[in-house]
Design a protein that fits this description.
The chain contains three helices and five strands. The chain has a three-stranded antiparallel sheet with strand order 4-3-5, sandwiched between helices. The chain has a two-stranded antiparallel ribbon with strand order 1-2. The longest helix has 12 residues. It is globular.
Length: 98
């Protein structure tokens, strides 16, 4: 098996990979912003207590917002931008969309 393959087939090239910036709402109504290249898996990871330490005691979490990018760097920049927003601005973003 080559280094480009994993269990179940080939791994997508970095160029073909999609990146997601997401906001989840925790049980205590707090919001957490993150980035991933596998959104479904990441939400499951959070809910299985293997995600970010910031949300471990606030489970379950629910996905309330997402944006998709073709490259990692723009997604990282957007994540930083969203993290700098006030809570009210994040709620506005969630309500109105991107």
């Amino acid at each position: 098996m080559s280094s480009e393959q994993g269990v179940g087939g080939s791994i997508p090239s970095r160029r073909a990979m999609k990146w997601f910036v997401y906001i989840i709402e925790c049980r205590d109504n707090s919001l957490y912003t993150g980035i991933t290249n596998n959104l479904e898996k990441r939400i499951k990871t959070h809910n299985n207590k293997r995600g970010a330490k910031a949300v471990k005691g606030k489970l379950p979490v629910n996905l309330v917002y997402q944006e998709q990018y073709n490259e990692k760097q723009p997604a990282l920049s957007r994540e930083s931008e969203i993290k700098s927003l006030k809570r009210e601005e994040k709620l506005d973003l969630i309500t109105k969309g991107a």
